[in-house]
Backbone:
DNA sequence: TCTGTATGGGGAA
DNA sequence: TCCCCCTACAGAT
């Protein structure tokens, strides 16, 4: 689900569903989550959400009653969330608690309802008494001017030595851009993804040429816009699109990128490049898939990386007789190391044990080598890969309709 | 049953 | 520059 637009839509969802709702402590955390407990003692409090880039802040505000003693008064608390790959909020009845609801806020009113932070993969995190992460830059959507200024004034930073597609994921400068947004933005401007970022950004001003248009868009955001916002690509530069393209997703009004939801179709139709049939894709230097059209650009990796093919260790090299054999052996040793670790983990964790056992069995048995693949040269596989999530989402949509 | 992939990012070397 | 944290799913075998 979560890039900047999804985080913002999540904050809108919280504010809409929790408007006028009183909550009551304790705030409960799942057993399995490694995130911190939220110690917030209050008989009645309200919840309000704000977003900034790829973070959401929940503010818990106590409601004072007449018999509350001054020394017992709970101060307001901010909890800052990052959603990882699968985080989102849901508001349900207590007996309909979603699977993987790792942090739960209960209503005061009975029968109780629950605002849950749901996160299947548990890559998400929260911080009680949290603040916006200091290393993250201004929000691409709602701090547009300072976002531009932050990029333009730091172009000498070595971070900009890298390909533009990789720099767009650097949250120090592009707080809110994620994998689908970088593909969509570069596609609109027909910028080869592996062009040096500095070369692309040099010459852009800290002031946006289309400022009037932007303020209109921000204005419409407060209400539900009557018409769809479309970007005039010919007028906007790359930094401009880093602002307007995510706002288009917000204006779609659904949940953004979330194949599990029935209203996913509007988002899917909005995508022009990411996972779209006929588009090319490559692994970038961080092992993430970049979708694009046309020329990949001069800084494209020589060999597209495959996550399963691990780098060889010195120990492995000592025992090698040839490059190929060595690579195969290393792959085995890496798998074995993983197996040991996973076995230990499976033994110590009783909750969620079944999937882990399956993983362990898999790891034990799978000692064969995974041949490197070059994705952009295998159209059959590419089509299948592109098709996968579509089929899945269509199936899920059908299920939802039922 | 096995493999590969997925909207992110912290931290070790 | 990597490995790792995790679950769920599609497709291959």
Residues:
């Amino acid at each position: 689900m979560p890039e900047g637009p999804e985080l913002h839509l999540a904050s809108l969802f919280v504010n809409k569903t929790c408007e006028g709702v009183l909550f009551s402590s304790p705030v409960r955390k799942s057993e399995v989550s490694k995130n911190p407990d939220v110690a917030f003692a209050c008989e009645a409090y309200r919840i309000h959400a704000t977003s900034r880039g790829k973070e959401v802040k929940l503010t818990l505000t106590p409601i004072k009653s007449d018999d509350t003693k001054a020394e017992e008064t709970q101060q307001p608390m901010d909890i800052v969330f990052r959603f990882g790959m699968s985080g989102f909020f849901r508001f349900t009845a207590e007996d309909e608690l979603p699977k993987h609801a790792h942090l739960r806020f209960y209503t005061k009113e009975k029968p109780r309802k629950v605002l849950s932070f749901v996160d299947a993969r548990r890559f998400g995190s929260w911080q009680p008494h949290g603040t916006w992460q200091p290393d993250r830059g201004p929000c691409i959507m709602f701090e547009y001017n300072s976002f531009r200024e932050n990029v333009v004034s730091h172009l000498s930073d070595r971070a900009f030595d890298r390909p533009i597609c990789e720099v767009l994921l650097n949250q120090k400068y592009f707080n809110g851009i994620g994998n689908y947004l970088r593909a969509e933005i570069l596609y609109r401007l027909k910028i080869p993804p592996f062009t040096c970022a500095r070369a692309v950004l040099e010459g852009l001003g800290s002031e946006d040429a289309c400022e009037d248009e932007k303020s209109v868009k921000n204005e419409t955001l407060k209400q539900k816009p009557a018409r769809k916002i479309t970007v005039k690509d010919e007028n906007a530069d790359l930094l401009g699109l880093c602002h307007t393209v995510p706002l288009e997703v917000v204006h779609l009004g659904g949940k953004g990128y979330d194949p599990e939801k029935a209203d996913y179709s509007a988002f899917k139709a909005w995508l022009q490049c990411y996972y779209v049939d006929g588009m090319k894709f490559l692994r970038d230097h961080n092992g993430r898939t970049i979708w694009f059209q046309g020329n990949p650009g001069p800084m494209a990796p020589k060999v597209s990386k495959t996550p399963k093919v691990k780098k060889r260790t010195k120990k492995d090299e000592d025992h090698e007789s040839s490059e190929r054999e060595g690579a195969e052996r290393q792959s085995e040793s890496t798998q074995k190391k993983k197996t040991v670790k996973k076995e230990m983990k499976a033994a110590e964790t009783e909750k969620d044990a079944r999937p882990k056992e399956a993983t362990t069995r898999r790891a034990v048995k799978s000692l064969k080598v995974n041949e490197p693949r070059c994705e952009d040269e295998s159209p059959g596989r590419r089509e299948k890969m592109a098709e996968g999530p579509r089929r899945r989402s269509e199936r899920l949509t059908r299920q939802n309709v039922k």
